[in-house]
Specification:
Layout (H helix, E strand, L loop, with lengths): L3 E11 L15 H5 L5 E2 L8 E11 L2 E8 L9 E8 L4 H11 L9 E6 L12 E6 L7 H9 L4 E2 L11 H6 L14 H14 L1 H6 L3 E8 L11 H4 E7 L2 H11 L1 H4 L10 E6 L5 H9 L2 E6 L5 H10 L2 E4 L7 E2 L8
Parallel strand pairs: 4-7, 5-8, 11-12, 12-13
Antiparallel strand pairs: 1-3, 2-3, 4-5, 6-7, 9-10, 9-11, 13-14
Helix pairs in contact: 2-8, 8-10, 10-11
């Protein structure tokens, strides 16, 4: 679970049933109000009365993470800063592993010897805010090239941006692997709704803070068989959370990379999908394509570029998943 923090806040609450616009601001627990000495009522004004309640609120944590890169036989074995990104602490190794793969910076996992927490008290004295990626001694990866492709153009990435600072979108697109077989697996519409509900139920950080995104990995069935209907909770393999929507997906990919990169065969086809709490932007589809993910289900809307890339990569995307509707934007035959 992503880390959270507690801050003292002042909550304004109405002592009437409704406010000026008819919006209810009632206390969730009237007993809490009655026994809270901090709550005081202000004089009535414009037919509304407001109280002030001093409480502790749980907030989604956001902290910087430095990613350092080292080759044992190059640059004297010294590590150099690749980039600094913002994220919710937790699953940092999975985040970096997933980002290295989805960015195409290190497509060959054999190039990586280890990904570990380290630190020299550069950021708040917290070792968990630094990650060291050590390359294999036999890796021919050019650290200088990696820094020119990535570090100099993504020296700082915020929590809300997946491809900020990339020199060229074409570089990312050229690295997307070509699938030998088309994505054919389908889902029943009831299973789509069930997956969305299962993700909500497993977003523990969001339940506590309302300030984090979630991404869940699921296995797609070989066919949409009515007799093989499964609940979303049974289909979900893993769920990760972060204050950044792209970070949540990178964490999910990094934690499950060996599973996602297994080659599909005609004898044993296996496709994976993701369900996310956010909108579907270009970077979400690009990361999914890099990880052989064939379906993206989302609570929010897609962008035009996301739809175009999904069409090109044969990825089924559906958005605005709610109680009464599902908008299918690509490969609509795969949700029935």
């Amino acid at each position: 679970m992503s880390r959270v923090k507690t801050f003292p806040i002042t909550r304004l609450v109405s002592t009437n049933l409704t406010g000026e616009q008819g919006n209810s601001l009632e206390l969730a627990n009237s007993h809490e109000r009655a026994n809270s000495p901090e709550l005081t009522e202000k004089p009535e004004r414009e037919q509304s009365s407001v109280g002030r309640l001093a409480i502790d609120d749980t907030i989604a944590s956001e902290e910087p993470l430095e990613i350092w890169l080292k080759h044992p036989l190059k640059q004297g074995g010294n590590a150099s800063l690749l980039l600094t990104t913002m994220r919710s602490p937790g699953d940092d190794v999975a985040l970096v592993t997933g980002w290295l793969h989805s960015s195409g910076l290190l497509a060959n996992s054999a190039d990586i010897q280890s990904v570990t927490h380290t630190g020299s008290e550069r950021i708040k004295g917290n070792e968990a805010n630094q990650i060291l990626v050590t390359l294999h001694p036999q890796s021919d990866f050019d650290i200088t090239s990696g820094q020119s492709q990535s570090g100099s153009h993504i020296e700082y990435v915020n929590s809300g941006c997946g491809v900020c600072g990339q020199r060229s979108i074409e570089v990312l697109l050229d690295k997307i692997p070509q699938r030998d077989m088309p994505n054919n697996a389908s889902l029943l519409s009831n299973e789509v709704l069930s997956l969305a509900n299962a993700l909500r139920q497993q977003q523990t950080a969001f339940a506590a803070t309302g300030g984090s995104h979630g991404a869940g990995l699921f296995v797609l069935p070989e066919s949409a068989d009515l007799n093989a209907l499964q609940t979303g909770a049974n289909r979900l393999i893993d769920v990760r959370e972060d204050i950044g929507r792209h970070n949540a997906l990178d964490k999910l990919i990094g934690a499950n990379l060996p599973l996602l990169l297994v080659e599909n065969t005609p004898e044993k086809p296996k496709e994976y999908g993701v369900v996310i709490s956010s909108r579907i932007s270009f970077d979400i589809v690009q990361k999914a394509a890099m990880a052989n993910i064939g379906m993206i289900l989302a609570m929010g809307a897609p962008s035009s570029l996301a739809i175009e890339l999904a069409q090109e990569c044969d990825i089924c995307i559906a958005g605005f998943i709610g109680q009464n509707r599902i908008n299918v934007y690509t490969c609509d035959h795969r949700i029935v």
